[in-house]
Design goal:
The chain has one domain. The chain is 54% helix and 0% strand. The chain has twelve helices and no strands. α1 packs across α2.
Length: 298
């Protein structure tokens, strides 16, 4: 089937939304928003309020354009809060992984193939790391290349600083279960390396969504964290939850943040944000009944 939908003007976009039943009290203001937030991007926020089984996508009930924008702004603020928490987690992960392995295996431990389980994956991942180092414009990378020729690439505390979180997660997962790896896992209050590996993968995916301004609030995630049965610190009491929804991911974040940054305010800031947007359905975000009584969220 050939795609044949034409581009439509801002005026036509407003008219189409009105035809579908969206209340627009100020068409001029709506056109201004649509000139800065594309119709297609905004569709992700109108979707839950429309009958999408009907080819005409009519709105269900009384919904206004202002309420859609309120939900859009909420999602943006949500991304910023989540991204801020992920920044702390990502930096702590890099720091602890580099520190524990360098103490035992030296400055260039990251490119020692004997430390990895799957050699094919190692070759692919280390090549990717070298590419990221070569592309980097960081001053410390340029300084190393200008001053040193052996080894060709910089030590772990430089090289892994420019690695993406996704690549860091792949390298960590492929590392053998040595004492340094056990120490990293324990540093984050966990007892099973498989749990931390799944969390890092899930956080990397979540970070990419935030970094690319993707819809967050009601997203179904394809990369999901495993839930631990035994932890060094209190985790969720109720684990009968949707692992592919935001509640699970943020709960895992809160667990790590209580260790990394005990005075953090992510939970309270999220609660305040939830209270300020009437369009938010917490169930769509995976929040179960009684979530507010969980120690992690207090």
């Amino acid at each position: 089937m050939k795609y044949a939908k034409p581009s439509i003007s801002l005026e036509q976009q407003v008219e189409l939304l009105q035809k579908r039943g969206l209340n627009i009290n100020n068409p001029e203001k709506a056109r201004h928003y649509l000139s800065n937030i594309s119709f297609y991007r905004l569709r992700a926020y109108t979707y839950p309020f429309q009958d999408n089984n009907d080819p005409g996508h009519p709105f269900k009930g009384d919904v206004s354009f202002e309420e859609i924008i309120q939900l859009y702004v909420f999602d943006r603020q949500l991304r910023l809060l989540v991204f801020d928490g992920l920044e702390k987690i990502e930096i702590a992960l890099r720091t602890k992984i580099i520190y524990e392995f360098a103490r035992v295996y030296g400055s260039h431990w990251h490119d020692r193939n004997e430390l990895y389980t799957n050699q094919v994956r190692f070759t692919k991942d280390i090549s990717k790391l070298y590419e990221e180092v070569d592309r980097s414009s960081e001053t410390f990378i340029k300084h190393y290349k200008a001053k040193y020729s052996n080894p060709e690439y910089p030590p772990s505390w430089m090289a892994l600083e420019v690695a993406s979180m996704g690549l860091l997660s792949k390298l960590f997962e492929n590392l053998n279960k040595t004492e340094p790896k056990k120490k990293v896992v324990a540093e984050f209050g966990l007892k099973n390396h498989l749990i931390l590996e799944s969390w890092i993968h899930a956080f990397a995916h979540l970070r990419n969504v935030c970094a690319h301004h993707g819809r967050l609030w009601n997203r179904r995630f394809t990369t999901m964290p495993k839930l631990p049965d035994d932890t060094l610190c209190p985790f969720l009491k109720n684990k009968d939850i949707h692992k592919n929804k935001l509640y699970t991911l943020v709960s895992c974040m809160l667990y790590m943040l209580q260790i990394i940054s005990p005075g953090h305010h992510l939970a309270s800031r999220l609660k305040t944000l939830f209270e300020g947007c009437t369009q938010v359905d917490l169930h769509e975000m995976g929040f179960p009944k009684g979530w507010e009584y969980e120690p992690l969220w207090n």
